[in-house]
Amino acid sequence: MEFLLNPDEFKGPCNLSLTINSGQTSQPAWKENQGVFSELVSIKKEACLLKVAQQDGSLKINAESRNNISEKALKQRIRQIFDLDFDLDQLYDFLREDPKLEPTIDFCQGMRLFIAHDPFECIISSISSANCSILRWSRSIRDIKYKWGNPYSFGDESFYTFPSPKIISQLPEHDLEEMQRCEDHLPEDFQFNNNLQACGVGYRAKYIIKTAEMIQNEISLHKIAKMDYGDAFDTILELPGVGPKVADCILLYGFGMGEAFPVDVWIKRIICHLYFDGKDVAVPKIRDFGMEQFGEYAGYTQLYLFHYARKSGLLDKLTTKKK
DNA sequence: TTCCAGGTAGTCG
DNA sequence: CGACTACCTGGA
What we know:
Structural class: alpha+beta
Oligomer: single chain
Radius of gyration: 21 Å
Shape: globular
């Protein structure tokens, strides 16, 4: 199935590449080939290979699946993933009211939240991203999918689903545990690599396993999606490896809760520079400030400020000045 | 080679 | 509460 999603079907501009490549921690960037972005996405429980490309202001959508999917369900999913129901022009009106935020508009024209297509994958990605580079956690997620996800082939391309909470919860944590579970007689120099730590997640392996177990047994993602932001925040904070920053990333990029204001060290530096005269203010205070100051636009403001700071050279200035 | 980035959990006051 | 530090790993 192939069709165009025209600009009159969503609110404000949409820059696909900017949205997908802005380093949001919910999911690794989608596979790109000559401007076409592809990913295996579940639509009404049906595995579907989505291909999305920018065509002027429109989005060109191509979808393949074993069984038929209605165009309506497909469109709905696309709107959700790229946050197309959010009115960017309204955001720009808001940003223009603050001279400190106004410059971000030009740098981020058309950039939207890139909402995770799989909330569980988003949670594991976010835990893996804590204290870690984008390159490293993206690799880990890729390895996890490759090792334990279900493969789907479309033409000559292969994609893997992200494994379920049940599967992750039962994985060996590291080499030693994998060795202990193995009853076969193996050569002396056998390399154990079917464990989580072998995917480069480091000490987060135990958090990931325990989190998967809790999601499997006691915490319903379905319910979190329906909670208000405050309750959802308190609930996912219970997951091991999830602190305030990761919780806000999950709620923003995984569940589309726009009032979340994830504060990492970069955002802290940017906010201290812009709003506190370069003074060092503690992270929890920055979070309070952001939520109070930016309200329902806190999430987008965080996204825009970060991208703006990176592209304008402000970020470099803040690191070398070390303040 | 050593050093360092970068959130969370744990400990201590 | 706030301040401090260990934690895996990969890139400088």
